[in-house]
Amino acid sequence: MSEETTTTEAPTTAPVDLTVQDLSVLRSIIDVASQRGAFKANEMEAVGKTFNKLDAFLATVQKAEEESKAAETATGTVKGDK
């Protein structure tokens, strides 16, 4: 009798790729859906809170990016320079 060895490989999954741009699109989707009445009245509180958290997060990210660009400009460094 011969022994068969089986190898179990974990299925490879693609890495999750969620960008700030994706979050911005989600914010727009929530805004449009709420304007079109897609949410029930009892859901509006949760939707509104989530929208506000997402909006605040995106504002913080945008401010940080602007400050980073301003710092790069002030120091004269540009991405890609060696």
Topology readout:
Elements (H helix, E strand, L loop, with lengths): L19 H16 L8 H32 L7
Main sheet makeup:
none
Gyration radius, rounded:
23 Å
Order of helices and strands: HH
Overall mean pLDDT stands at: 86
Fraction in helix: 55-70%
How many separate helices?
2
Number of strands: 0
Principal-axis shape: flat
Q: From the helix content, strand content and strand pairing, which structural class follows? A: mainly alpha
List low-confidence stretches.
Answer: none
**What proportion of the residues form beta strands (DSSP E)?**
under 5%
In short:
59% of the residues lie in helices and 0% in strands.
Describe the 3D structure.
By secondary structure, the chain is an all-alpha fold. The chain has a domain at 20-74. It is 59% helix and 0% strand. The relative contact order is 0.09.
